[in-house]
């Protein structure tokens, strides 16, 4: 008999406890959920649990929790995507600095990530994956930021009113959106035996899917939601929205993409319905935050093989990836801020905050592993590097806040 209900109870208790501890030591809840996955995975509990561990985390129950975790990712991507679109700058003057910071902040670590992947040859590349998809994915893995984690760091450090913090959040919004589009494009190139012709066809399919979704489907859903609310009230509108999110996620998988991309498209199409988003958060956010989303991150943590780091070569790659990710992101964002005439001390904060990887990076890595774009050993290295980058970013942001809390704000000069 499948014991997935018992397993679910254990996972909820452990993730909640680890989340509380993570927050007490100044980290985000997601860090605690990943640590919970490490503790519950084969590297810790599996090494000491023996037959009891195999009985608790049987393959049947693990598969069930993995599906629930994917549903949690779909919910998280919808909520995060709606927030990203809602926070996008609405005017050209306001958009200029965030776009410059995001562009340079992605370009530098992206180039370093691609260079490391090329330099490493086939060390971490999975078999049957096109080399170009593997190299480009490594670039994306080092170039993204994490808007939810950054927002929490900014709030906890008490710097939400600083101009540099606001610019960082807007730049992270642009970075996240660009990162997901790039990842969707790479997913279209990642099919085994892909040729130039088939890769082009896959990208055209992807473009058609996006174009059809944000035009025909978007207009259709606006009409359906309005009609549902008129005839059935908020509950009917919410049911229609939920079905659309799930169907959009399914359609993405039918095109060879990940279900998260479909949820993101649904978020774009419904981001203007503030009444719906408020109702969604009130009805679903509790279930997603407490149960479904933690399952996704626990599954991500259980994929980590700590024993892989016993190799000196992998430890060396971990150091290189960490250095390239931090230096590339900081240098690109700092340069972008200075080009927009941001004061040096505030440009430093922008570079520090943009190194917050957290949730978005973990979703990117998990999707890359599921699509077999990276090996499990590289996944372990990148995940540990991600957690370290986020922890360092949080500590430096709090230090900046302590040192400059009483200093006057430095706003950017108006664009010429």
Structure, explained:
- The chain has 416 residues and is mainly α.
- The protein has a single domain (74-292, 312-404), classed as Na+/H+ antiporter like fold (Up-down Bundle), CATH 1.20.1530.20.
- Helix content is 80%, strand content 0%.
- It is built from 16 helices and no strands.
- The radius of gyration is 21 Å and the shape is globular.
- The relative contact order is 0.17.
What is the H/E string? HHHHHHHHHHHHHHHH
Average pLDDT works out at 79
How many DSSP E strands? 0
Task: Tell me the structural class.
Answer: mainly alpha
Top CATH class: Mainly Alpha
Radius of gyration: 21 Å
How does CATH name the architecture?
Up-down Bundle
Shape: globular
- Reported by name, the CATH topology is Na+/H+ antiporter like fold
Task: List descriptors.
single chain; 416 residues; mainly alpha; Na+/H+ antiporter like fold; globular; disordered C terminus
Summarize the structure.
By secondary structure, the protein is an all-alpha fold. Helices cover 80% and strands 0% of the residues.
Helices and strands in order:
Layout: H1 4-24, H2 29-40, H3 45-49, H4 51-56, H5 59-86, H6 92-119, H7 131-143, H8 147-157, H9 163-189, H10 196-254, H11 259-270, H12 274-302, H13 312-339, H14 344-353, H15 358-370, H16 376-404
